[in-house]
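Next comes a single protein record:
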Amino acid sequence: MFNLICKDVVIQKKSIVGCILFIIFYNILALFSKGYSGIFIYAGLPLVIEYLLLTNTFLFDDKNKSYVILNSLPIGRKNIVISRYLSVFVFFIVAISSQFILSTLVNRHITMKIDYVIADFIIVNIMSAVCLPLYFKYGYTKLKYFFMMFFFAFWFGVPYVVEKIDIVKLVGIFKGISYLGLYTISISCAIALIIISLTISIVIYNNREF
């Protein structure tokens, strides 16, 4: 399983270089634009990086028919699925770490907040929980446009929803619950969602014919 995760990371050589340049570009852009904020830099860019790295693994597997080779080896299908879910979290760590390091070097007036990291973690879990079962069922080629539209729905939809939500009423619902409690509940729900998705993906992949 460890080797499968390493495979997903190793194939990202060109993508990681592109992602680094992408982060540097937007941080430099933020230096000259008041319209860019810490929310976009720290909460938005890591999601883009996560999406690019994950879909690149999908593309690589479909292009090289890796699933045919993997299923001919003495590797359980369950391990193949679990390794892909673990790769999502490895990419998440890479995205957050790269963003933190490069933003600190390039754009020091913007600071990372735990709220941004938790928000990214939750969104990554939701996106992965939806996309991975579909990927294991149909493959990337058939769904690449769906994945793209789904990502942009989050990219543009989440800010719109946040803008329309009555924050005062929303906070009132959770009145009496500490920030730590809210963080714990949110992260627990995100982890529960990804576990459910993982279970579904294992069932789908075990029943899939190649």
User: Anything to note?
Assistant: The mean pLDDT is 81. The first helix runs from residue 2 to 10. The two ends are 21 Å apart (CA to CA). The chain is about 80% helix and 0% strand.
